[in-house]
TrEMBL record:
<keyword id="KW-0460">Magnesium</keyword>
<dbReference type="InterPro" id="IPR002698">
    <property type="entry name" value="FTHF_cligase"/>
</dbReference>
<dbReference type="GO" id="GO:0035999">
    <property type="term" value="P:tetrahydrofolate interconversion"/>
</dbReference>
<keyword id="KW-0547">Nucleotide-binding</keyword>
<keyword id="KW-0479">Metal-binding</keyword>
<dbReference type="GO" id="GO:0009396">
    <property type="term" value="P:folic acid-containing compound biosynthetic process"/>
</dbReference>
<dbReference type="Pfam" id="PF01812">
    <property type="entry name" value="5-FTHF_cyc-lig"/>
</dbReference>
<comment type="similarity">
    <text>Belongs to the 5-formyltetrahydrofolate cyclo-ligase family.</text>
</comment>
<dbReference type="InterPro" id="IPR037171">
    <property type="entry name" value="NagB/RpiA_transferase-like"/>
</dbReference>
<protein>
    <recommendedName>
        <fullName>5-formyltetrahydrofolate cyclo-ligase</fullName>
        <ecNumber>6.3.3.2</ecNumber>
    </recommendedName>
</protein>
<dbReference type="GO" id="GO:0046872">
    <property type="term" value="F:metal ion binding"/>
</dbReference>
<feature type="binding site">
    <location>
        <begin position="136"/>
        <end position="144"/>
    </location>
    <ligand>
        <name>ATP</name>
    </ligand>
</feature>
<keyword id="KW-0067">ATP-binding</keyword>
<feature type="binding site">
    <location>
        <position position="61"/>
    </location>
    <ligand>
        <name>substrate</name>
    </ligand>
</feature>
<feature type="binding site">
    <location>
        <begin position="10"/>
        <end position="14"/>
    </location>
    <ligand>
        <name>ATP</name>
    </ligand>
</feature>
<dbReference type="GO" id="GO:0030272">
    <property type="term" value="F:5-formyltetrahydrofolate cyclo-ligase activity"/>
</dbReference>
<dbReference type="GO" id="GO:0005524">
    <property type="term" value="F:ATP binding"/>
</dbReference>
């Protein structure tokens, strides 16, 4: 199978998942998110982690805002910042220090870039779809694929249950998760 074909398959899945997500209100999404985040908190790798990279959820993802705030007083919490084709990492210092990011307007920390990538013990990664073999597909910009190439942290994919498929198409760049919580 050639790459174009895989990109086509991914595009089809992104469209299908997008339709399923439209069924949920913010209230429902928060209710669906709580038990997923509780599972994450039970993971030994999360409990032991001192530095974690989380994400500030967009309107169709597992709701993470309260989770980020909750854990920021107990662990060093890093968030991704869009910088051209790549992601910068910055330490979360509170909601009042979030600014609108470039391109997608996702809130991200202001302040200096966090350079100690090796210090990150665990990284929580949202995605459009995952499969039982721990494969992940994202929004199609390969931001996380590029970032993960240089990180050795424990990788946890996170999504709603309807986003776990039997099989997601993968190409040579895609990096597997260590586990998925949903
Ligand atoms: N919460 C969160 N933060 C994140 C990511 C993410 O997936 N979730 N990212 C993970 O990479 C990076 C941002 N990447 C993004 C890539 C695409 C789109 C997006 O809105 N895409 C449109 C269609 C594409 C387009 O605009 O051409 C869409 O999905 O509808 C948003 C963020 C860094 N921060
Ligand atoms: N490390 C990489 N370097 C250069 N190009 C890449 C890399 N990883 C993926 N690509 C290319 O970028 C495009 C998008 O990749 P892909 O569909 O895997 O992104 P994604 O994992 O869904 O997105 P994201 O990681 O942003 O959530 C593909 O055409 C892919 O071949």
């Amino acid at each position: 199978m050639n790459t174009t074909n895989i990109d086509d398959q991914k595009r089809k899945i992104r469209k299908e998942i997008k339709l399923m997500k439209q069924d949920y209100s913010l209230k429902q999404r928060k209710e669906m998110s709580a038990p997923i985040l509780e599972k994450l908190e039970e993971l030994p790798e999360f409990k032991e982690a001192k530095t974690v990279m989380l994400y500030w959820s967009m309107s169709d993802e597992v709701f993470s805002h309260d989770f980020v705030c909750k854990w920021a007083s107990k662990k060093k919490v890093i968030l991704p910042c869009v910088k051209g084709q790549t992601l910068d990492l910055k330490v979360f210092k509170g909601v009042e220090h979030l600014v609108e990011g470039e391109n997608y307007g996702i809130p991200e920390p202001d302040g200096p870039v966090f350079m100690d990538e090796d210090e990150i013990d665990l990284i929580l990664i949202p995605g459009v779809a995952f499969d039982k073999e721990n494969n992940r597909m994202g929004r199609g910009k390969a931001y996380y694929d590029r970032l993960l190439q240089s990180l050795s942290a424990f990788k946890v994919g996170i999504c709603f249950d309807f986003q776990v498929l039997d099989h997601v198409p993968i190409d040579e760049h895609d990096i597997k998760m260590n586990c998925i919580v949903y």
